[in-house]
Design a protein that fits this description.
By secondary structure, the protein is an alpha+beta fold. The protein is 63% helix and 11% strand. A hairpin with a 5-residue loop joins strand 4 and strand 5.
Length: 398
């Protein structure tokens, strides 16, 4: 069973206007033809009413409305005719192209063009006069003209809809890019915050525990000195991070990111912080000086060493902690090794975020990293962190 949607209010207005206009023309006696089979003027009201009813279906069932309207127009040719019927039929042709299926919108202009050509040729062949050519022009205006107009409007509407969809997709992609950028920036900030502050807070935690648990004024004074030094350094690092988050802060331009030139100071500080735990920190730099490394590589190497020293301070057994740097043509090698095992005295808890941050830094540069216990000399197991950071930017620019 065919279920028709409720007519659009604009279609109701068109139907009512067409019917009212046709009734007015009939009342004043205005017709478009004479000498037809049915000369009674009231007969022309029947095609008028049918065409007006078809206008109610111009959106919900455009093909049905066009078919019924075409039959009504043919029937109207056997009466005195009504201009309103013809005008409403042109609207039905226009609506069938505009609101019909894509296939119908392509076929109707072609069919109406063929009908126009056929009618014109037929009348010219039957009566080769100017009136025959005029009839063909009128048929084209009634059939092909509205179809061509509907196709043009539909093409513009489809183009506007496609442009809107592209704009929506572009906005969606932009939002996805923004969300990814925010996530990446938050991850970077988390790594920076952890790497900068964890070292100082770990030293503070270990030495404050020692100061509380060991009843020795000298030890307590030494621990308090380490705590104060790491508090000051941690505060400076926090200020540097805040400066990085500001484009032009009120406190002046942000300080530069740490580089490998600062490793001596980092190793010295780590040695001072871990001396009471029985750790000795040394730096072995076997790099061949051939120009500066890319800034991201130097920052990543510095942070890997910093986090590895922090982990050694928290977990390593008494013994040597060795930081090694070496370069090849394509990569910077960073290695930090410490004695693997339990140790006496206070320890700071770990969360595992440090290793994750180091792996993220290495992955962002396209390098490789491994971390874990390995056999060492004299049967002593060591915890070794080894990272290879590509330095193609430097070699390409050389």
């Amino acid at each position: 069973m065919l279920s028709l949607a409720r007519p659009h209010r604009h279609d109701v207005i068109l139907a009512a206007s067409g019917l009212s206009g046709g009734l007015f023309l009939w009342l004043v006696g205005i017709h478009i033809q004479n000498g037809r089979l049915f000369d009674a003027p009231w007969v022309s009201l029947l095609p008028l009413a049918v065409t007006s009813g078809s206008e109610l279906l111009r959106r919900s069932a455009p093909r049905t409305a066009l078919a019924v309207g075409a039959l009504a127009l043919v029937a109207d040719q056997f009466t005195v005719g009504s201009l309103a019927t013809v005008l409403m039929f042109t609207d039905l042709v226009y609506a069938a192209v505009l609101y019909g299926s894509p296939a119908a919108s392509r076929r109707i202009p072609v069919v109406t063009l063929l009908v126009t050509v056929a009618v014109t040729l037929g009348f010219v062949a039957w009566a080769p006069t100017a009136d025959a050519l005029l009839i063909g022009i009128v048929v084209g205006m009634v059939c092909f003209g509205p179809a061509l107009t509907g196709a043009s409007v539909r093409n513009h509407r489809d183009a506007a809809e496609a442009a809107r969809l592209r704009a929506d997709q572009t906005a969606l992609l932009a939002e996805m890019d923004r969300a990814q950028a925010v996530t990446a920036e938050r991850s970077r900030m988390a790594r920076e915050l952890h790497d900068m502050v964890a070292n100082h807070l770990s030293a503070i935690a270990i030495h404050s525990t020692a100061a509380l648990s060991i009843d020795d004024p000298g030890t307590s004074r030494e621990s308090l000195g380490v705590i104060r030094r790491n508090s000051v350094d941690g505060l400076a690092e926090m200020r540097r991070l805040i400066g990085l988050l500001r484009e032009n802060g009120a406190d002046g331009p942000p300080s530069a990111a740490p580089t490998l030139a600062s490793l001596d100071a980092l190793v010295g500080q780590a040695g001072a912080n871990s001396a009471s735990s029985g750790l000795t920190v040394t730096l072995e730099d076997s790099r061949v000086e051939s120009g500066p490394l890319p800034a991201p590589v130097e920052l990543a190497a510095y942070r890997i060493v910093q986090e590895s020293l922090t982990n050694a301070l928290k977990h390593a057994a008494p013994g040597p902690v060795v930081v090694r740097l070496e370069t090849s043509r394509a990569a910077l090698g960073v290695e930090v090794s410490s004695v693997f095992g339990d140790r006496p005295g206070p320890r700071a808890p770990g969360s595992g975020a440090g290793l994750l941050g180091m792996r993220e830094r290495v992955a962002l540069l396209g390098g490789t990293m491994r971390a874990g216990p390995e056999p060492g000399e004299n049967g002593v197991r060591v915890w070794r962190v080894r990272a290879e950071l590509p330095v193609e930017e430097r070699t390409q620019g050389a």
